Amino acid sequence: MQKIRSTFTVSDFVIDELNSVSAELNEKKSHIVEKALSMYFDYIDEKIADKRLKNLETGKEKVIPADLVFKELGL
Predict the structure, then answer these.
(1) Is residue 17 domain-resident?
(2) Three-state secondary-structure class, residue 38
(3) What is the tens place of the pLDDT at every residue in 10-62?
(4) How many domains, in total, are found in the chain?
(5) pTM
């Protein structure tokens, strides 16, 4: 997997916590941030799935049967 350098701004409290955790665990800050974001994205995926399910239940979204999708794709 390719690593990409990125710059972003966070509060001083977050940086202080990151520095503290990094020192305590003797891990790179970038590794901690990457793991934290990965866990957060898992959480957000669940929230999105719940929202989509609710939208299906309330009729705001419709399910397209797989056979129609396959037919449209020529499969």
Answers:
(1) yes
(2) helix
(3) 999 999 999 999 999 999 999 999 999 999 999 999 999 999 999 999 999 99
(4) 1
(5) 0.71
38 inside domain: yes
Which residue type does 31 have? H
59 assigned to some structural domain: yes
pLDDT bracket for residue 68 (50, 70, 90): very high
Rounded (to 5) percent helix, strand, coil in the chain: 70, 0, 30
Q: In sequence order, what are the residues at sequence separation of 6 or more whose Cβ sits closer than 8 angstroms to the Cβ of residue 21?
A: 27, 32
Query: Tokens in use for 18?
Result: 């990151």
- Token couple for 21: 């955790």
Token reading at 56: 């299906």
Is there a domain that residue 6 lies in? no
Where in the sequence is the domain holding 56, given as residue range(s)? 12-73
> What is d(CA 43, CA 41) in angstroms, rounded to the nearest whole number?
5
